[in-house]
Amino acid sequence: MIQWITSYFNRNTQAAPLAVFRVFFGFMMLASIVRFWLNGWIEKLYILPKFSFSYYGFEWVKPLGNFTYVIFIICGLSAFFVGIGYKYRLAIITFFLSFTYIELMDKTTYLNHYYFISVLSFLLIFLPANAYFSVDAKKNPGIAFQKIPRWCIDSIKLLLGIVYFYAGLAKINSDWLLKAMPLKIWLPSKYDLPFLGDLLQQEWVHYAFSWSGMFYDLLIPFLLLYRRTRLFAFVLVVIFHVLTRVLFPIGMFPYIMIVSALIFFDSGIHHKILEKISRFFGIVKAYFDNGRELNFYPKKKKFLLSFLSLFFIVQLLLPWRYLLYPGELFWTEEGFRFSWRVMLMEKAGYAQLKVVDGETGKRFYVDNSDFLTPFQEKQMSTQPDFILQYAHFLADHFKKDGHENIEIYVESYVALNGRKSTSYIDPDTNLLEEKDSFKHKTFILPFNDQIKGL
Amino acid sequence: MSKNLRFPILILLITMFSCSDAEDDTGGDTTDSFDRGKMLQNWADNIIIPSFETFEGITQNLEEKTLAFTEEPTEAGLTELRSAYEEGYLGFQTVSLFEIGEAEAVNYRANLNTYPLDAEGVEEKISADEYNLELPSSYDEQGFPALDYLLNGIAESDSEIVEFYTSHENAEVYKNYLESVSKRINALTSVVHSGWKNSFRDDFVANTGSSSTGAVDRITNDYVLYYEKFVRSGKIGIPAGAFTGNPVPGAVEAYYSPSLSKDLYLTALQTTQNFFNGRHFDGSQDGPGYDDYLDYLNTIKNGEDLSSLINGQFVTINEQAAVLDNNFVSQVENNNNDMLAAFDELQQNVVLLKVDMMQALSISVDYVDSDGD
What we know:
Structural class of chain B: mainly alpha
Number of strands of chain B: 0
Shape of chain A: globular
Number of helices of chain A: 19
Order of helices and strands of chain A: HEHHHHHHEHHHHHHHHHHEEHHEE
CATH architecture of the largest domain in chain B: Up-down Bundle
Number of domains of chain B: 2
Distance between the termini of chain B: 32 Å
Shape of chain B: globular
Largest sheet of chain B: none
Oligomer: heterodimer
CATH topology of the largest domain in chain B: A middle domain of Talin 1
Number of helices of chain B: 15
Strand content of chain B: under 5%
Radius of gyration of chain A: 24 Å
CATH class of the largest domain in chain B: Mainly Alpha
Structural class of chain A: alpha+beta
Largest interface: A-B, 74 and 63 residues
């Protein structure tokens, strides 16, 4: 066993797949940033809001007014440099930091996809993705290698595998499998799709989509790993992601996943892709086919392998942290983020915050639209950590306005996966007496139903 | 490129180009599912257009009565004009909900009913004899609140009010201002009504798409917004001081003729309930509306009977309204708790409409159109 492990970590392989991955990753990220900008989302999501919801521990990460655009420029430029492989290490570190900064500015916009990009770009910092077919390799023959350690490529496969497999595990619950929720809500509303519209009204279709979605997520990493099922798996990847793109407002992500899945293929395909690119741009690809093999110095290798092992252990454990909290995960959302729980639930809420003068008992409600964008209000009303942060923000605001003895309460209702809305946060808890932390939030009222499963 | 990869990549490219972000809105025919086109048709042909039809007649009459009064200002004429104003204000409650199409383009609701009125502003403009009601900054100096002021608020007694239009040094300007306000109400109503009669009706009914620009999605957002901001907050919550802690009698709708205020509230409430149930404007029958749509969706998901819950809450709200004074100014001054109780009952349906109904219909509140997971 140990022998097998040692020999595995000594095996080298073609660097081309990693180079192709780097090129596609860089340019797709550049396209994503440009698309984000052109949609006017920088302004709408980061500049216009008067208040931003911070992640616990990252309160210092804030939108920077018009300077926010500069962060996006930096992020886009670094993505471009990653793509062409110029000053790669600096570029990927810059990309990771700027992209992650953007994501940390306001948790309103949290998406698993964005987290995936952050995690992936972090991993890429440690991989020799510029060893082949890059400006760096062209300028500095000393770092140009045609072959790199096999684990470098496999680590990306492992990360993709975790994302899919955990997304599949999260679907093993009674709402998803036995009630076909939330697809039963989402699919009928796509009644106007050509061909599919009427089909999507059928109950059996909702179940079929739910079950096949789960099996797809659980099995696809393995189907991509085995040579004999690989092509079939890739066709599935394309169909699945295109379907999600048609059904849901999901942005660039489906394309990113489809292109990422190419890494599972043998290097032959990647060489062909690079040949096409070379021919188009007049690059001499043969220059990179130098036959050299990259072998890390033992110390560096040891460090890299230990560090990345730790990274993957964290990745494997983090999604399970919800087990440490009491209550229903979908209801409390304690431990929900950063766990590949994608498109899992339909949750809507309404939160009316009430400012009370503790001495005189005088009270008034807050008009959320005075402080929050509709998008922020939507996210705030279904997530306890948002509500708490908002309450503290309101207290500061009204203190400045001269109000005294402020207590803040919330009357809130949440509907989850088609259940009737019920009271969400204890309306008798003065939210100012609660502090945000990783501990269980006792002011969340219990969920009146049960969702069985993982 | 490997031959084997060509097919999937071709599909990928085709879809990348075919699913551009702007969704195509021409809805396909739906056979065995709920027919949203019929619901839109019912709303347009049996509720919205007849409401505007009737209301345009009322605003036409209002303009005529105004001109008759300015021609010869008498106390009898004032009484007649007042009843045209009251009929108009009540009629407006049957159309204010439909801020879509031309109404949205001309900011119909803001022009006709921004209150409280800036009475000082009105006086300043009249004494300066310089005003332009088309400016957005003039929203709170025109419409029904301005009529209310000019017919009921400028002086105590009827004879004193009539003097403003006869012997006052600015009598001419007062008359002009009054005419401008009535004319603008009528003109804007005519614009909105024609919009429906011309192309907008067909666009609306044909726009059965499910995207955020589809007619069902748009009008549902308008509906919930109207109920929450203009019925619950505007008519009840803000005067009751629900958002400030102190009652604000000055924020009551029809402040200068406050005995009208409860009827305005009840009419608006009835409009929202009728629209929910698809009840024809003439009251003759119920066509397809949210109630049927929710019932249809419930046959799929077997959840709570939302349409009954919402209708039940409408009943509760109406029952609670029975204890309210016809005059909301004296209501908030004398017994604001009943007003706050009305707010709480209205609130229950905000939750059911905005959370439960919108979730069931899978319609999102007008959010930024950002990506989802």
